[in-house]
Amino acid sequence: MSRFKRLGERLATRDPAHQVAEVQIRCAILNTCNRLAMPDTVALT
For residue 42, is it within any domain? Predict the structure, then answer.
């Protein structure tokens, strides 16, 4: 949640089409941060 807040709590644009694009970009950034923070799991056999 702190990563999302660092991007700003409000949307910067007023146009609904631009707001959709902004939310999609924020989601992509959060997904990338989450992917980078996840540990690599290796099965030991």
Answer: no
Q: Structurally, how many domains does the chain consist of?
A: 1
In a domain, 43, yes or no: no
Range of the domain at 24: 2-37
Determine contact, residues 22/11, Cβ cutoff 8 Å.
yes
pLDDT digit string, tens, across residues 8-37? 777 888 898 998 998 898 889 888 888 888
**CA–CA separation, 8 and 45 (whole Å):** 45
Which residues are CB-contacts of 7 (< 8 A; sequence separation ≥ 6)?
Answer: 26, 29
Q: According to the model, what pLDDT value does residue 2 have?
A: 67
